[in-house]
């Protein structure tokens, strides 16, 4: 075992052959110092890097950990990203997709992060700064980028400045037994703190996690395919969301083969959701073979929603229906309470842009003072034992 402490020791350590070291331990270098270079060098040099219990690494420089192979990071202590906003504004890794930026890109093959510790985004400074500057680019906590066979397991992620996890161009990526929580202690909310955004990636599983955040719990973005999400507890989120898709002209978005099951979701804007743009200058794509099953919903505004006229007025949507075609979607076992009267809305664009949407085993109940549950639908012939709740869907 080797200890990576001050930068001087580290440099001499890493100039030597790394083959002898099986595991390296990174401990904090002392108050006021940046531990980013130590962590980066340890991971590059050693198959296993340990951040021990009681250690908080202060990361003040970006972590470019791409192209790794056969690495494990045992995060038993804490990795905290120093909220030096001017530094990160110029130095985060950037991605063109939705103009995202990240503290840490982690990629390669056969990688693991585990250990029971905490990844801390120190988001409060960001939540407050974003209130003053709405164009501030806030970093994603962890981006798994161009990776195969990655397991992120048994850690906590707290106070991400923006999205917690971005899965970008990966395959075989597993997240298991994580707790995510973003809570603002000021009046400025922890905005856009999505749990996961999956983009251009396949074979991704997210299981057995607790999430308390201020935007999508999980979002399936363009070209997320073969995804399993199971046994999550989401609180305060914007839901388990497909999309939004079809936003950018000339871009073709695919989301297919997705299962989201056994989800407990509370105090959310949406429960199970699909959203796609319509309008004159938008993109195109398909959403196919999506299953939402067994959602225990509590106090959610829109427990079940398809919006295929996303951010588009009814008249424009009639003239320019969505070019994202939706088919083979199942909502099965949607139970619990809503905060509004309308408990389910399946609103498709006109011109047969949705097909094979099944609704089964619905038991969604609005607050007593809101009266009986309402169901809304348009431009779709629903199937399944809950279809009768919706009545005949309007044609627009
Ligand atoms: C983290 O490192 C930066 C840069 O060296 C330093 O300014 C800051 O005080 C450190 N923070 C902590 C908590 O040590
Ligand atoms: C990150 O490191 C990889 C090598 O693994 C290099 O190719 C890439 O240019 C680096 N990215 C940045 C933004 O520095
Ligand atoms: C707001 O944030 C943007 C993007 O990070 C930056 O370019 C701009 O200078 C900031 N504006 C102010 C007033 O700080
Ligand atoms: C996540 O939270 C649960 C419930 O509070 C706890 O039992 C579990 O140990 C936490 N996981 C980690 C990695 O700390
Ligand atoms: C669901 O995940 C939690 C951890 O968040 C775990 O304690 C529980 O055993 C899991 N339930 C099932 C049925 O696997
Ligand atoms: C759940 O989310 C609601 C709404 O954001 C919040 O008020 C509440 O504190 C959260 N509960 C927990 C246990 O974090
Ligand atoms: C999604 O995949 C399809 C088929 O490979 C490709 O044509 C399209 O450009 C991809 N879209 C994005 C947003 O990557
Ligand atoms: C639908 O998606 C699920 C989950 O990825 C997959 O297991 C199943 O084979 C897919 N069905 C078809 C017909 O592709
Ligand atoms: C659904 O969630 C509510 C609130 O969290 C809980 O009281 C109830 O036991 C859950 N029901 C099922 C069937 O899991
Ligand atoms: C959900 O509601 C359906 C229909 O009322 C019911 O058959 C099913 O047992 C409920 N499931 C849960 C987990 O509460």
UniProtKB/TrEMBL annotation:
Gene Ontology CC annotations of this record: extracellular region
Cross-referenced PANTHER family: EXO-POLYGALACTURONASE, PUTATIVE-RELATED, PTHR31736
Active site, UniProt feature: 238
Protein name (database record): galacturonan 1,4-alpha-galacturonidase
Listed InterPro entries: Glyco_hydro_28 (IPR000743), Pectin_lyas_fold (IPR012334), Pectin_lyase_fold/virulence (IPR011050)
Reaction catalyzed: [(1->4)-alpha-D-galacturonosyl](n) + H2O = alpha-D-galacturonate + [(1->4)-alpha-D-galacturonosyl](n-1)
Lineage, highest ranks first: Eukaryota, Fungi, Dikarya, Basidiomycota, Agaricomycotina
Keywords: Carbohydrate metabolism, Cell wall biogenesis/degradation, Disulfide bond, Glycoprotein, Glycosidase, Hydrolase, Polysaccharide degradation, Secreted, Signal
Key word Ribosomal protein present: no
Function, in words: Specific in hydrolyzing the terminal glycosidic bond of polygalacturonic acid and oligogalacturonates.
Alphabetized Pfam families for the sequence: Glyco_hydro_28
GO terms for biological process, alphabetical: cell wall organization; polysaccharide catabolic process
Gene Ontology MF, one: polygalacturonase activity
EC number in record: 3.2.1.67
Residues making up the signal peptide according to the UniProt record: 1-20
Subcellular compartments: Secreted
SUPFAM superfamilies linked to this entry: Pectin lyase-like
Entry's family note: Belongs to the glycosyl hydrolase 28 family.
């Amino acid at each position: 075992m080797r200890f990576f402490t001050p930068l001087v020791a580290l440099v001499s350590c890493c100039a030597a052959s790394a083959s002898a070291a099986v595991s390296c331990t990174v401990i904090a270098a002392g108050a006021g110092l940046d531990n980013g270079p130590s962590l980066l060098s340890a991971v590059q040099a050693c198959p296993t890097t340990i951040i021990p219990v009681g250690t908080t690494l202060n990361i003040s420089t970006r972590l470019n950990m791409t192209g790794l192979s056969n690495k494990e990071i045992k995060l038993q202590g804490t990795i905290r990203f120093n909220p030096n906003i001017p530094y990160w504004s110029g130095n985060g890794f950037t991605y063109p997709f939705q103009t995202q930026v990240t503290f840490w890109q982690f990629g390669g093959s056969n990688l693991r992060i585990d250990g029971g510790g905490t990844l801390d985004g120190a988001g409060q400074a960001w939540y407050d700064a974003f209130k003053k500057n709405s164009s501030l680019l806030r970093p994603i906590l962890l981006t798994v980028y161009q990776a195969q066979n990655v397991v992120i397991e048994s850690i906590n992620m707290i106070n991400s400045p923006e999205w917690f996890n971005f899965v970008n161009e990966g395959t075989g990526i597993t997240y298991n037994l994580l707790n995510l929580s973003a809570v603002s202690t000021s009046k400025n909310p922890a905005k856009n703190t999505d749990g996961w955004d999956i983009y251009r990636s396949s074979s991704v599983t997210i299981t057995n996690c607790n999430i308390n955040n201020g935007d999508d719990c999980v979002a399936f973005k363009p070209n997320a395919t073969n995804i399993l999400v199971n046994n999550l507890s989401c609180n305060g989120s914007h839901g388990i969301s497909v999309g939004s898709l079809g936003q950018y002209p000339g871009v073709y978005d695919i989301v297919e083969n997705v299962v989201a099951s056994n989800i407990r979701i509370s105090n959310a804007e949406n429960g199970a959701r699909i959203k796609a743009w319509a309008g004159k200058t938008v993109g195109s794509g398909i959403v196919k073979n999506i299953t939402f099953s067994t959602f225990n919903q509590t106090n959610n505004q829109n427990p079940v929603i398809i919006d295929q006229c996303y951010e588009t007025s009814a008249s424009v949507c009639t003239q320019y229906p969505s070019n994202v075609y939706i088919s083979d979607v199942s909502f099965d076992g949607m139970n619990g309470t809503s905060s509004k009267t309308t408990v389910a809305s399946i609103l498709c664009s006109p011109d047969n842009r949705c097909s094979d949407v099944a609704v089964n085993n619905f038991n969604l109940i609005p607050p007593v003072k809101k009266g009986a549950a309402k169901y809304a639908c348009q431009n779709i012939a629903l199937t399944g034992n809950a279809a009768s709740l919706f009545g005949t869907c309007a044609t627009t």
